[in-house]
Amino acid sequence: MTTPSLESRDLTIRFGGHVAVNAVTCAFHPGELTVIVGPNGAGKTTWFNLMSGQLRPSGGAILKNGRDVTALAPSARAKAGMGRAFQLTNLFPKLSVLENIRLAVQARRQLGPRLFRPVSAFPQLVRKAEEHLAAARLEKVAHMPAAALPHGDQRKLEVALLLAMEPDIFMFDEPTAGMSVDEAPVILELIAAIKQDTSKTILLVEHKMDVVRALADRIVVLHNGELVADGPPDEVIALPIVREIYLGIPAEDAA
Amino acid sequence: MTATTQANPAAASHVRAVRTGRIIVWSAAAIIAFCLMFAPFLFPDVRAQQVAARICVFIVLAASYDLLIGYTGIVSFAHTMFFGFGAYGAAMALKSMGAGFDAIFLGGAAGVALAALLAVAIGVLSLRVKAIFFAMVTLAAASVMMVLASQLSDFTGGEDGIVYSAPKLFSPATKLLTDDNGKVLKILGVSMNGKVAAYYFVFLSCLLLFYALVRIVRSPLGTVLEAIRENELRAEAIGYRVVAYRTAVFVIAAIIAAIAGVIWAVWLKYTGPESTLSFAIMIDILLMVVIGGMGTMVGAVLGVVIMTLAQFYLKDVMAAAAEATSGLPLVPHLVDPDRWLLWLGILFILLVYFFPAGIAGTLMKKGGH
Predict the structure, then answer these.
(1) What is the pTM of this model?
(2) Does residue B226 sit at the A interface (CB-CB below 8 Å)?
(3) Is residue A144 part of a domain?
(4) Beta strand spans in chain B (E)
(5) Dist. CA B110–CA B262, nearest whole Å
(6) Where are the transmembrane segments (chain B) (predicted)?
(7) For A117, which of B4, B219, B240 is closest by C-beta distance?
(8) Is B162 in a helix, a strand, or coil?
(9) Which residue in B258, B24, B215, B283 sits closest to B118, CA to CA?
(10) For chain A, which terminus, N or C, has the lower number of CB atoms within 10 Å?
């Protein structure tokens, strides 16, 4: 077996007496899209926060390509190729859409000590940002402040920021949350396009079952902070515990 | 852009309003730049020269503070402390080494280096903590320095400060240009003496520093600073080490403030706690940036000019008004020059009320907080 691109080893976090994520062990591989499901409060977002560094674990370790990154700050993890999009839109509200994306493009490029050169002196930065802008179909609002966008466009920008980071590992936290039926496909197409590149590892928290079925190579189920199921989509969806969690049908009835 | 404006009439009117606002702001800035560039000829009297030089130096000071508070969202009360480091460095060297450019350079460099060092220390130690604690740390540091400046009177001259001479080039007795008779040449009725050289030394150094600041905020780094102000967590999440950037910008602002202090010390030929370190100056800078518009750079120019002119000339204007209305009941008392602070206060309240994001910020629909 090859080294996983991302590994969560016994990851645990306690808030006071409450264990939000409890000894979750799971490995992810390039070319694989894993959908993470679980009811509200299952610890999905908290688990993401532990892996991308927004929270420090109480125990356990995170490994990227076999290297322990548990002690690294979020920025260092981002530089190492771990990218994250947020469930609650998390943008730079007063900056323009293009500037938002350019920041993500810029972050992994070494610009050197060229402190006094205007942005226009770096045409490759702007060009790359415009490519990502077009991919997310945000060209028409390129110069509007992010805060002025309608919700759907903000969600697209949220995803565009992650894409513009050009990471190896993509962590999407409910990317289509609150989007209309017409808009959601744009995001799903973007994710499907990343999936074509087999060097990328994709983690996706999603509730909509049609999305899950269409994209997932594998499903991981979290419940009360614990990993309760992990496997191919058909098998996991058929599991009694998943039906119980999602449909509220007690395991014995479902079986 | 055109696609947006066609699709959205609200966006179109927004774009138009912003364009008009930009024109107003940039024309005002251009007029100010013109006046400052030709200040010795346009306003030859001594007091006006003093005001013009103060405006130049304070534009740099306020603009470097805008880099902190407006662009990056760092609230610091130690900006005058760094200003003071530069000023005292130059002043002590001019006093002990004599009035030469070597003294300005060495003393200034020492003051700037010390400012940078202390900025690194404060930044590394405390930019991780919450904004309010950081503000308190800078306040404490600034208070300590002020006490030190007034207590270590052997070095700093204490409360009285230090009086010294500027280099001979800047002395009023120096003839920059002479006519055929060997007398000082007059252009447009203004003697080409050392005072003019001193003003242009101030003007050109400040112009250079302001230009450097504008280049910084227009660079890719400038966008990162704004990103940190807007959303620190996301800036960190997309790969920017927020603490490192904050520390770097704190040091850059400290260095520029210290250089402004050197220039101010050379111009004033006096350095004391009241002219550089006092909290009154700190509050002035803060007000200038807020009134001008945080996160705009050009706002610093407008804020400094409005505040400085008000501080220097409001009394005169009121005296004239009191004179003119002396026949009327009550009015002359209201505009009595003794009440100038009241009117200054009212002016500030009105400015903040009608320009909530500062003058430049509101007119250009841009800027921080």
Answers:
(1) 0.88
(2) yes
(3) no
(4) 162-163, 186-187, 190-191, 270-271
(5) 10
(6) 23-43, 55-83, 103-125, 132-152, 197-214, 243-267, 279-305, 341-364
(7) B219
(8) strand
(9) B258
(10) N
Q: Does A106 touch chain B (CB under 8 A)?
A: yes
- Is residue B170 over pLDDT 80? yes
Chain B interface disruption, residue of A55, A103, A117, most B CBs within 10 A: A103
Residue type, B247: T
SS3 call for B186: strand
DSSP state of B128: T
Domains of chain B: 24-364 (1.10.3470)
Q: Is B182 helix (H, G, I), strand (E, B) or coil?
A: coil
Query: CB B234 to CB A91 under 8 A?
Result: yes
Mean pLDDT score, B184-192: 77
Residue A143 in domain: no
B212 close to A (CB below 8 A): yes
Question: Which chain B residues are Cβ-neighbours of A73 within 8 angstroms?
Answer: 236, 241
pLDDT tens, B106-123?
999 999 999 999 999 998
Tell which phi-psi region holds residue A60, choosing left (phi > 0), alpha (psi between -120 and 50) or beta: left
CA distance A237 to chain B (A): 33
Q: Which amino acid is present at B293?
A: G
Strand ranges (DSSP E) for B120-221? Answer: 162-163, 186-187, 190-191
Mean pLDDT in consecutive groups of 10 residues from the start of chain A, 255 residues: 86 90 92 89 90 92 92 92 89 93 86 71 88 90 90 90 93 87 86 90 87 87 90 86 70 44
Query: Does residue A156 form part of some domain?
Result: no
pLDDT, tens digit, for every residue of A190-238? 899 998 888 999 999 988 878 888 888 999 999 888 998 899 988 888 8
Regarding beta strands A59-64 and A6-15, do their DSSP bridges make them parallel or antiparallel, or are they unpaired? Answer: antiparallel
Range of the domain at A220: 6-92+167-254
Tell whether B218 lies on the interface with A, counting CB pairs under 8 A: yes
b/e A110-129 (16+ beta carbons within 10 angstroms → b): eeeeeeeeebeebeebbebb
d(CA B285, CA B273): 16
Instruction: Assess A149–B contact: CB distance below 8 Å, yes or no.
Output: no
Our CA-based measurement puts residue B231 at a distance from the nearest CA of chain A, in whole angstroms, of 6
Contacts of A242 (CB under 8 A, 6+ apart): A37, A221, A229, A236
> What φ, ψ does residue B66 adopt, rounded to 5°?
-65, -35
Asked if the ipTM is above 0.85, the reply is: yes
Q: Is the dihedral of CA B321, B327, B328, B329 positive or negative?
A: positive
Is A116 inside a domain boundary?
Answer: no
